[in-house]
Amino acid sequence: MKDIVEEIKKRVDIVDFISGYVSLKKRGSNYFGLCPFHHEKTPSFSVNPKGGFYHCFGCGESGDVITFLMKIENLDFKEAIRELAKRYNIPIHIKERSKNDALFEIHSIAEKYFFEKLKLNKTALDYLKNRQINDDAIELFKIGFAPESSELEKILKKEGFKEKELINSGIFIQGSRGVFNRFSNRIIFPIKNEHGQTIAFGGRILNDDKTKAKYLNSPETPIFSKQKVLFGLNLAKDEIRKTKEVIVTEGYMDCLRLQISGIKNSTATLGTALSRFHINILKRMADKIYMNYDADDAGFRAILRSAPTILSSEMKPFVVILDKGEDPDSFIRNNSKEAYIKKLSSAKDYFSYIIDFIKNKYDIEHPSEKMRAIEELKPIILSVQEPILKAAYTSKASRVFNVSEDAFLAKTASFEFLSSITKQEALLSIILRDIELMAWIEDLDDFKDEFEGLQKELYLNAVRFYLSGEEFSIEAFEKNLSDSQKKLFYKLISLPQTDINERYQRRKVLLYLLAQFKLDKLKKQLRIIQQKIQENPKSEFFEEYNKTFSEIKEVLSAWQDS
Hints:
Number of strands: 16
CATH class of the largest domain: Mainly Alpha
Strand order of the largest sheet: 1-2-3-4-5
Distance between the termini: 44 Å
CATH topology of the largest domain: DNAb Helicase, Chain A
Radius of gyration: 25 Å
Helix content: 40-55%
């Protein structure tokens, strides 16, 4: 193993390799760029070509090309060695299985199983046929079907996998009578990493059962994070590199439709806002990014949620505007590929799109309405970290609204009202006063676990209302609440917030609360890892500790810069 490590370090140019992930510029004998492991405005990430190592002066992360790949791709040591050896044609022989190998193997077997089962299910095949998805598309994306059966569980156990490994894969759920397939009776879309390995699944329900989610993704696992994976990227990456352009949609069907229509530089997020991890991946391949979400209020909200990341990315962002109620899948089916390309060529500058949308929401000839519009736009501008970009956006906004640039740059918020209530009460109080601020919560579905009982019920009602796109009013919101929910609702909106009257102030407090929720989780993880180290001081536990501690520093840094 030592010989292989030395060979990799000798063969791999660390500057060339890291340049695939980070934009580096030479300064003296070293190269510098923005650290991919924490949020920063000024480049403090240094790569030393002579020594073959990197070091970040901001967060302290350092190592060689192997540790860089481990951290950036969330791989363990043996997986990183295998990946580097594969990329640079270095022969290796590693017999010992890594801790994630079982998860990759389970997903590989499950994908083949689902793929074969689709051929036997006429209802699923008819559904795909009606959506104009042909056999070539099914083969390309390895679309499958998950029957209501324990057959897959038995196959995997026969292959030697333990029940705990099946649950850890995210495909199975622990029930009172053993495990069962979470994707039963769903059409299956395999989710692959950039290298084409299946790491998760998405499932589309076949019937119209309103009690179940139409689309369902695998939960987070050691090999899958929604914040780090883009659907279809494994198929799109060559075309993205070739065109230097990428189209980002919000669902498997949209991405699939574009790719099978010949527009191959398309990918999709998986129910989350476009994260900085997504942007870091796409920046390696493209200069231009086209956001193409559904042409409705919910689509705009999704675009808005990605604004801080996109506007700070240094990419050239655009929004593809389709006819009302259309998405890429329906538009191409109802029109043509050529009609879509025409829409693409007339895409609107991203920031101009946001300004126009907000302008059209308010009568900006009226001073109070103009103030509300500015309040809505202000947190978006304030979220941009790069000074030159922020100055450009501020200048443009001040011209459009005919106000001074200072109107968009005031940045104060008091935290006084938090002193006597819980984080959960504070957060609900803010979003129920200003439901548009839910755009700043990265994953609306996952965040529900921060609440319990009535608070959770109220939060889920707020999510449903926000995603509906209906204009918020107390009367409209309370009509679907139970008596006990109404009582809590009125208590929360009655909490005094005199120190955070404006939207940008409320946003500041909201981001503070979201950071606190993240920190609580990470600190809990840290305590568990510390306990593991005390009981059994293995090197992997120290790696976990360092990773978690780095994440804590990253959350603190991002909050301070917000």
